[in-house]
Amino acid sequence: MQQDILINWAPQETRVAVVENGAVQELHVERTLERGLVGNVYLGRVSRVLPGMQSAFIDIGLERAAFLHVADVWQRQEGGEAPMFARKGEPPVPIEKQVFEGQSLMVQVIKDPIGSKGARLSTQISIAGRLLVFLPQDDHIGVSQKIPQQERDTLRARLAVLAGDKAAGGGGGFILRTNGEDASDAELAEDIAYLRKTWAGIKAAAVRLPPQSILHQDLSLLQRVLRDIVSEATHSIRIDSREQFALLQAFGQEFMPQAASKLQLYKGERPIFDLYAIDEEIGRALGRRVDLKSGGYLIVDQTEALTTIDVNTGGYVGARNFDDTIFKTNLEAAGAIARQLRLRNLGGIVIADFIDMLREDHQAAVLAEFKKQLARDRVKTMVGGFSQLGLVEMTRKRQRESLAHMLCEPCPHCHGVGEVKTARTICYDVLRELLREARQFNPREFRVIAAQQVIDLFLDEESQHLAGLSDFIGKPISLQVEAGVGQEQYDIVLL
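Structure (tokenized):
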């Protein structure tokens, strides 16, 4: 599998597309004025403690207070200096015994604000480097689950020696990232020193700055490309800005030389995203319908609570019998669903409604293919089996806004419902409202101001009903078109 990363930079927005074997798999967008908060460390102030919800609201200087749940509070053990979370199976110490209103608290954002919800926080600080993740409040030494089992013990022992080097300021815990599997001791020691220096700066800022201050900001999207997205499969990283290329190259050569060696300055005349029709792919990723090569299609519906994906055979009739048609459509859909989750950055609960299959071996094959495709996702996923209703339930960790929530907003006419009342329905709403107004007021004339299609209907098919109401209330009713208003909007003016 060959992976190419395309970066389109502008002063107001950075866009990154991850292309695998010619197909866009991931899209990342960061706007200068709307930069994500995940990874940022703040000195917050506890504004409210809610014992009934075992949570607290923390003011970190944002428009909405952030949310801290008791499960994300780093607890101290009795008789021990190192703070830690409650062990699995043990009830956590109630939050009202750990934090109090007005308290200053160092916190880290683990989920961006989404919709009407504020950011989610943790008091466990973790700082990501090129090869390692530093846990300054812990002494745990861990290794990424993606590294083969047989190599983990050796790597853990090496890391424990380096992390415990008192001459180098030992202390704190570390987790070895996947891209650190083949790193030398010198490279690991360099990353450890960088992370400890960063933590020292955070602690110094916490003493110097007032509450509601930011103590540490995570890397920009451009820098996170080198840290998080580049892998051994990455063939090239092409960026269309000479200035940002130079800055990213300097950053990469200092912290991530292997990734920096893959950087290329794009000098083509065509916009870089035109190479793989990325803008068209973004447009499709914002739509409900996703066409499959076989003729089938997916319908993707995203709500605040969950995302549903419905699989349909559409025009696909290529298999010998109906069971094979369904099976092949579901197999193709399994890969397409996994790709759409990455492309759209969909998180939370996802319900996939595959076409019903009678044979258990077909169900097993589709589920295996689905899990295989999801294994390529860098975001953590959990998948269940087929339910009695033929649904597959899964979760995908949600950290940032989905692509649709970032690029779109609810329609001002339908308010996100996806449908508006028909012109005829609005006509009848207007007639009922006219009758209410006539019973309360005694004007010389009623004037209806509405959209063109509603007025057209009143002048044609509904003209008899309008005239009958005018006779009944004994008042003239005039009509006026208001250009640019939605079909559901209307006004009744008393003259």
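The CA atoms of residues 154 and 470 lie 89 Å apart. The longest helix spans residues 185-208.
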